[in-house]
Amino acid sequence: MQPLSGSFVDFAGKGRYYSAMPVFRLSEQIIFPRPELAEENGLLAVGGDLSAERLIAAYRRGIFPWYAKGQPILWWFTSPRLVLFPGEMRISSRLARYQRNSGFHVTADLAFSQVLRHCAARRTVTGQGTWITTEMQEAYTRLHQLGYAHSIECWQDGRLAGGLYGVALDRVFFGESMFSLVSNASKMALIHLAGLIRKRSFALIDCQMTTPHLVRLGAREISGETFSKYLKLYIQSTAPNGLWTNDT
């Protein structure tokens, strides 16, 4: 693991020059630099691979991969961090009425690959660009097969209307992406996720980036230092917790 001081990385088509602190180049060893060494914008390291072992080691420290097609793998630790404590989820009376009358049927781990593809496709359709490349999809599918990555699916009239996916380690769920083909479907998936993981004694959902709709649902920002403390407290084991198919 070597520091690359003053390295240039073109992320999502926007040229940026990182020089305030070193950006680390990962080696074949599965070792990450300390999260607090990340750049102000969150960039911590470059390189490595997307093996299950490396991804699990990264998530345990709150580090996640995020890069565009044709780039080296970029690893990030953002601060402040948006998190949602399941017991703090806020459901407005309007949203609760919608939930009762929408006719949605929500499942878990029933269509992981479909959710993954839809998350990638929706970002492309809306012009945001996607980090969910074929390589990333293959990596998270491996994590799903191993019992680490999970999806929540929201169905309407037998068709997939929205959903989300992420990685679960012990008592923390690391949210990766969500999509909606029908209004509020991703919100329904998140509400279902919060209830499901509360039953499983989870303590925290990592939402990564701050968005207004997540804040309205009860998510809040905490410092990277506080986030790291929560991870040490809530992740005592990295054993997979299996499929959630029967938890709906």
Helix content: 25-40%
Radius of gyration: 18 Å
Mean pLDDT: 89
Q: Which CATH-level-2 architecture of the largest domain?
A: 3-Layer(aba) Sandwich
The largest β sheet comes out as: 7 strands, mixed
Unreliable stretches, pLDDT < 50, 5 or more residues?
5-20
How are helices and strands ordered from N to C? EEEEEHEEEHEHHEEEHEHEH
Helical/strand content category:
alpha+beta
Number of domains: 2
CATH class of the largest domain: Alpha Beta
Number of strands: 14
CATH topology of the largest domain: Aminopeptidase
What is the CATH superfamily of the largest domain? Leucyl/phenylalanyl-tRNA-protein transferase, C-terminal domain
Arrangement of strands in the largest sheet = 9-10-11-12-13-8-14
Terminus-to-terminus distance = 43 Å
Q: Any descriptors?
A:
five-stranded mixed sheet; globular; Alpha-Beta Plaits; single chain; 14 strands; 248 residues; 7 helices; alpha+beta; seven-stranded mixed sheet; Aminopeptidase
